[in-house]
Amino acid sequence: MAEKVLTVCPYCGSGCKMNLLVEDGAIVGAEGAHGVTNEGELCLKGYYGWDFLNDTKLLTPRLRKPLLRRHRGEDLKEVSWDEAIQFTASRLKEIKHKYGADSIMLTGSARGPGNEANYVMQKFARAVIGTNNIDHCARVCHAPSVAGLQATLGNGAMSNSIVEIEDTKCIFVFGYNAADSHPIVARRIVRAKEKGAKIVVCDPRRIETARIADLYLPIKNGCNMALVNAFGNVLIEENLYNQEYVRKYTEGFEEYKAVVAKYTPEYVEKIAGVPAAQIRQAMRIYAAAPSATILWGMGVTQWGQGVSVVKGLAALALLTGNLGRPNVGVGPVRGQNNVQGTCDMGVLPNVFPGYQKVMDPEVRAKFAKAWGVSDLPANPGYCLTEVPRATKQGKLKAYYVFGEDPAQSDPDLAGIREALEEMELVVVQDIFMNKTAVFADVILPATSWGEHEGVFTCADRGFQHFNKAIEPKGDVKPDWEILSLLATAMGYPMTYKNTKEIWDELRELCPLFFGATYERMEGLGYVQWPCPAPGHPGTQYLYTGNKFDMPNGKGLLSAAEWIPPFDKLDEEFPVILCTVREVGHYSVRTMTGNCRALQTLADEPGYLQINSADAKKHGIEDQQLVWISSRRGKVLVRAQVTDRANEGAVYMTYQWWVGACNELTVDHFDPVSKTPEYKYTAARLESIEDQAAAEAYLQTEYNAMREKLSSVAGN
Amino acid sequence: MNKLVIADPGKCIGCRTCEIACVLAHSATDAMVKMSPASFNPRLTVVKTTTVSTPVQCRQCEDAPCAAVCPTGTLVLRNNTVEVIPSRCIGCKSCMIACRFGVIEVLPCDALLSDRPVISGTHVEAVKCDLCAHRANGPACVEVCPTKAISVIDAALFVQAGRKRREHAAMAQAAFSPGEYPGQMGA
Fold this sequence. Notes:
The complex is a heterodimer of chains A (715) and B (187). Chain A has 715 residues and is an alpha/beta fold. Chain A has four domains: 3-54, ADC-like domains (N-terminal domain of TfIIb, Single Sheet), CATH 2.20.25.90; 67-140 and 337-532, Rossmann fold (3-Layer(aba) Sandwich); 143-333 and 551-556, Dimethylsulfoxide Reductase, domain 2 (3-Layer(aba) Sandwich), CATH 3.40.228; 575-712, Beta Barrel (Barwin-like endoglucanases). In chain A, a hairpin with a 3-residue loop joins strand 25 (625-630) and strand 26 (634-641). In chain A, helix 2 (81-99) crosses helix 20. The longest helix of chain A has 22 residues, at 691-712. Chain A is globular. Chain A starts with a strand and ends with a helix. Chain B is of the alpha+beta class. Chain B has a domain at 4-61 and 101-116 and 128-174: Alpha-Beta Plaits (2-Layer Sandwich), CATH 3.30.70. Chain B contains six helices and eight strands. In chain B, the strands form four sheets. Chain B has a two-stranded antiparallel sheet with strand order 1-8. In chain B, strands 2-3 form a two-stranded antiparallel sheet. In chain B, strand 2 and strand 3 form a beta hairpin. The longest helix of chain B has 19 residues, at 155-173. The N and C termini of chain B lie far apart (41 Å). At the A-B interface, helix 1, helix 6 and helix 22 of A face helix 1 and helix 2 of B.
């Protein structure tokens, strides 16, 4: 009989509680548990996404021993933990001594390690190395949501909760494909529809939610700011906004009104590609609903002006009074299982854990005292996406990559590879051999989700505890233990005994999280921050009494002029490439690519979604291999002809290692959040006459890549 | 009346969790290790068109064309379903040609990850939705669907649904005013 170990799904941010079924020390299955967000349901990743723990080597092998090369060009060799730690510590010390602490860049990990490991990582960066150069993949995903919402409402997270989505009377979906990104959130949208909610969808693709929408706006790629301004324009000009709410609880109305004045639906219809009447209709539905929720995803954030668009969406909620009560609000639904938590833990260049600003001397003094150091760095550090340029300028010399794979996930991969080669030291701490680890001088192998315990924060600020299910194989250590050894070797003793001890230390330092104890997270326990005291129930929705977390308590109405996409289409590159998600795979695919069932559903080189008219124009048939190139690179990919994709644009997912779309993407960033414009790259398609040869080439490339990763890992 | 598994496209999100569950429910316990694209043959297939997403599977037809054309009696009407008797299948594909829904397939036994001993002389099998008759909890697809889009409909549910629909029809008919349709009223 299998033993059941209660944990939290390691994939998207839905926060599904689940049981791993363990027999003779191995996982044999998974089943849903009745967590708050999932109510016993799981999607395919939850049910069938655990066998990467068995080191299937379908894509890339697990790391089992510390690996080290003392000189570039040599092979990585297995070494003892002691040797790996001593080497890393001495190299980091040398680099710090030679170039200063700010020449070292570190990352956190929004996936399996959990909050405690991330807390220790940022403490290591700030207290031991002495830099705020710490960031993580939120930068390339929901960083604009955090920045935009902090600037307008005061808190960067979802204002309301996943459970509330099904009881709202209107769901306004903007650039968010719940069915592919968060099936368990999609379930709430389906239920809301059944309960009579109106659904409005703005997306260039006919996504699953568009199928069940009352109104679907098939927008042009790159129109966001103009369209959101037009929505604001309609609310004001048609007098659909809540004047009393605006007067009492917001500021900036006159300035806002002035900016959106020009963006009449008639003016915007050409930019957005949808009739003015539909733009008006969308706002009439949204404003008429007694409760309305806006949900958005990467379709809003992965643009050069993502922050401004987030502010604009917040303005729609403020104008209609859809905040500060149940079943309303603004919902940037976080992508990775612990990307909310990694932000919570201060794995960002400008804040300590609990969103306490590094610029604030009182905050710095508090953390310095608690961590036993004389002072802490005051200037915000580099963002993840600034690494290539800062390296080229000679400002960064070492990169400590923890549980991420920038050589797969970041835009313009050629630029990332150059930076990794340029670095004097690259440390990779991970569970799998990945593309970044190929450049590493030291590889520190860690335990995986399933092999350690901790706390994750799901998309709606809910803390949940996850258990260890099996013993790890090989000479691996929990992330926080590796970092403690390193800190100690660098002259800063860290002696944590378990994750609870770490959690209690960070709770004491973070008023927002103080009441969320391990005891309260036992079993199916779910504690949503802010939770300032042990007796506090946690916070299902923010801004009670319409009091915003702003200096004067008022929400800020903000709009900005529309800026067209950065990359330009021309005769050579006439097609828009937009990067998206697909439901069966996750993140950089080290995990799901090593799961048998998930890999069976979809494998390399990945898919290019293309409209049938475009396919015909290019002489491309469904399932054929094609070349796609941009001004930065060229990759092979398999066409998936579907009229859910709009004409003129093609769609790829970033998890494919052979068909790696980030070889093509443009390194243009939002000026505030430094988030890349993954959603718009000028590209060119080429059909391939000899499909058999292309299939053979694909297999050769795929095998060569697997063999290389295996050999670097010493397997 | 036969019972059948059917999905509501209004709830389906196209995630294909049902397909994996189906394969595993009809496979040996080591299927998670042995699964490959060649051996991944779910008995229901998620179809996504521009406007519809839904799994499609056997309707368990009352007057099943597959059973009617099968020369060896492999397909039989039993237990309110169309059942397959694998040992009788010769792989002639008549059922595939006859099926109006494209939901029966003749597959080599080694493409099925099955733990059932191969009966001497049989190398192929007609494969279609069997409502997971061997599972105590019923169809695996119904169990795992995260949006509860899939359900089993039997005679009793048809009666119930029909009654509801007729009630709705009656309500709609309440607005009927015969005076406006003189030609139709046989006046």
